[in-house]
Amino acid sequence: xxxxxxxxxxxxxxxxxxxxxxxxxxALGAVSSQARAAxxxxxxxxxxxxxxxxxLRIRGALRQHRRRELQLTALFxxxxxxxxSRDLDDVLKAIVRRARMLLGTDTxxxxxxxxxxxxxxMRVTDGSVSVLFQRLRLELGEGLGGLVAQTASPYAxxxxxxxxxxRHTHNINAGVLDEGLVAILGxxxxxxxxxxxxxxxxxxxFAADRAPRVFSxxxxxxxxxxxxxxxIAIDTARALADTRTALAELAGANAxxxxxxAAVRExxxxxxxxxEAHDRLTDLVLRGGDVKDVAAAVAGLLDAPLTIHDxxxxxxxxxxxxxxxxxxxxxxAAWLAxxxxxxxxxxxxxxxxxxxxxxxxxxxELLASLVLHQxxxxxxxxxxxxxxxxxxxxxxxxxxxxxxxxxxxxxGELITDxxxxxxxxxxxxxxxxxxxxxxxxxxHLLLVAEAGAREKLGAAVLRYLFGGDIHGxxxxxxxxxxxxxxxxxxxxxxxxxxxxxxxxLGQLVQAPVTVAAxxxxxxxxxxxxxxxxxxxxxxxMRVLGRTGEGACVDELGFLGVVLGxxxxxxxxxxxxxxxxxxxxARRGTHLVRTLSAYFGCGGSLIRAKDELHVHVNTVVQxxxxxxxxxxxxxxxxxxxxxxxxxxxLNLLAGGRER
Length: 658
Fold this sequence. Notes:
Strand order of the largest sheet: 3-2-1-6-5-4
Largest sheet: 6 strands, antiparallel
Strand content: 15-25%
Low-confidence stretches: none
Shape: globular
Number of strands: 16
Distance between the termini: 63 Å
Structural class: alpha+beta
Helix content: 55-70%
Mean pLDDT: 80
Number of helices: 22
């Protein structure tokens, strides 16, 4: 008897075992080679290779998810330290330690100005091995830290030694060289406002590596959030110290200072109230609260309605002082942007048109705006509380964004598999969707978006999906971004959804975004077919010159009907233009291109010859040949309409005009 044919099953089980053991990528990759060596048939071997590729993607996604969880845990721990500790040194050490942990750098450190000595000194370091570096003192304006302090903006250098944007000195270079630092990121600790209207820099927080490195925008934003907490801790410690000093000086004063003593006690009480309020807000974050919970707490503390808006003016939360939900419309985006910019520049809440506005920032990026209504006046303590609420809201939104990005990336792989091979295992795709919280059997709209600024579109789509009440998932596919949005009775149709997405994504990208939509559709097969229909619609919009708009198939007129109803487009094109296409293919002529130019120029021979860059006699000769191939009625109205439609469809289908 002949030996049995080796099966692929043991190798597939081996892949699952390796995944459960968190084996290295090399071990997963070796399974295909082992199956090949065992003599697994070609068909089964291809299945093992596809399963190996899928296992490697799953392993990468799991490892990235664990890394995100570690970062979020570190951020929550930092907020816990701020809420639990009253010792400034402990808080600053925790912040520097977490900065190093979050960014995965070799070292992190914080410098503060010494007003008496007129220079800057190292306050806290973590991961440093050089005594010279730990004792380093800098003159104001020197080094990368001097540039950060002067501009009140983050700066990063992939190689400090060769960067000439800031002033190098022997003292700094010696310390950096002794520590072995190469890549450095510095962000300012901003507090209050100066006479010039910019935030006052009270220190600089750094993260540094001993090898070249480029810091991402998310890493800069995270370090800025930690710097904001450090500034709050320093400001609180200084204010409490000032209060204690004032109380000590007034303790032995006579009765004439009683009024001043009462004012100091009132200030101390206000400071304590602001600190307790900040602890309460931080506790909300630690307990998993969302933006609406923060809004309700602040509205209650300040006894005024409060709304939180995204950068486009859409409301994220709206509550009354009693916690009841407040009906809030989208705010004028231009007015809100001006107010938020004024708040960002001054690093303080601002009062405009009877409302208080405070920008919610992550570094220099505007995440949202807090708007307090019906309050003409805020005393210092209430204003400080309002501003601290913006810091906590920024941390919450940043954490929410990081979690959403991770979840969307994992779900996006499901969408990619759905679009590329829905017929292979529709039941398996539906089950994967249920495990990831995506019900593929529920109705969804399919949106396909494209923009010239492709690198910005993916991030803008995430902000669009998770910045409001839209429930969906996205994935980059075939040079576009595909959005699958949950749809219910009463929701906007495909065309309205496409126009809304095109408008809002265009604002986020600051460039035209074209969106085609179809649906609702349900089930893997319908969803995959809906994507193909939306993709054809997007190509049609591109040909029709509708860049920057949103539309669905049914709205494209006769061309849209042809595409949307899945007519035999290729057959129609061949029946109408076939003789010209084959003639051009055989002889290398340009009859199709000539016919398109002739119709495009309104039947003008003069304009057509300019369009084609040929002599007018050449155009006439080509049109004579077209008449021979198509018949004498080729330019009659009905026939001309068919020819023009076929030319458009040929171009839409990727055909070339010769």
